[in-house]
Design goal:
Helices cover 19% and strands 41% of the residues. It has four helices and 17 strands. The strands form five sheets. The protein has a five-stranded antiparallel sheet, covered by helices on one side. Strands 5-2-1-10 form a four-stranded mixed sheet, with no helix packed on it. The N and C termini lie far apart (109 Å).
């Protein structure tokens, strides 16, 4: 079989397949630029001073084209529209990109018939774009509220920037070489956090309980009272550390 005959066979049988595949690819790529596919994920927040509102809105663009946004709105019951945030200058979501939007607090919502209290769980997020409103597939991000989970709260206690559990009865705050350090002392006398000295444990006599006087005696005996230009011993009282004894007291 000559080369021309092979080329004719390939052209006859495979050209239509190549054309179909090329057409499908072109249609697929074009579909990425036609229309809009955007999702909005939001939180429902409130505090003691302002009304409940939608906040922390994450807008995701699933198309291969930029989307300018002039304003963000929430639609309730397919008829009540609430302005969440105006975008001035406009916010542009890049192709396959996302943006995060914060909203401003307010005191209350009203309509012509009086105070308005929308169901934020059923909100539909709308975007004011070029000559049209874009409806987003909307998701509320408050997982504990939406799924009926019981919320576990976090409580944070800190002493001069150091987060602690409140399990150390004493803190030694001291100055060493011009640097302010804070070391926590356990009920067994172990000194922890920022403590780089040779002795890291205070000896407590049998039957004794650690107190500020024992700590101060340890500092004097081991020469730390002279080494530190200043120090203050804090005691944990009702969850807070209070100064109870300082250098030269």
């Amino acid at each position: 079989m000559e080369l021309k005959e092979i080329v004719d066979i390939v052209d006859h049988y495979f050209r239509p397949i190549i054309i179909v595949i090329s057409t499908l690819i072109a249609i697929f790529l074009a579909s990425k630029k036609i229309g809009n596919k955007i999702s909005a994920h939001y939180m429902i927040v409130s505090d003691r001073f302002s009304a409940q509102r939608i906040d922390d809105i994450l807008i995701v663009n699933y198309k291969d084209k930029p989307v300018p946004i002039f304003g963000i709105y929430a639609l309730f019951n397919n008829k009540d529209i609430l302005e969440l945030e105006l975008c001035d200058p406009p916010v542009v979501i890049e192709p396959y990109g996302s943006v995060s939007i914060k909203t401003k607090p307010f005191s209350k919502l009203t309509t012509e018939v009086g105070e308005y209290k929308p169901d934020y769980f059923k909100a539909t997020i709308l975007l004011n774009s070029v000559d049209k409103l874009i409806t987003c597939k909307s998701y509320e991000k408050n997982l504990t509220m939406r799924n009926g989970y019981k919320s576990v709260s976090k409580s944070t206690k800190s002493f001069n920037g150091v987060v602690h559990t409140g399990s150390h009865p004493y803190v030694l705050s001291y100055m060493l070489n011009g640097e302010h350090k804070k070391s926590f002392i356990s009920s067994t006398g172990i000194i922890e956090n920022q403590w780089g000295q040779y002795y890291n444990a205070i000896k407590i006599g049998s039957g004794d309980t650690l107190n500020e006087n024992i700590i101060n005696k340890f500092l004097i005996q081991e020469g730390y009272a002279e080494l530190f230009s200043n120090y203050v011993i804090f005691k944990l009282v009702n969850g807070n550390y209070l100064a109870v004894l300082g250098k030269n007291q």
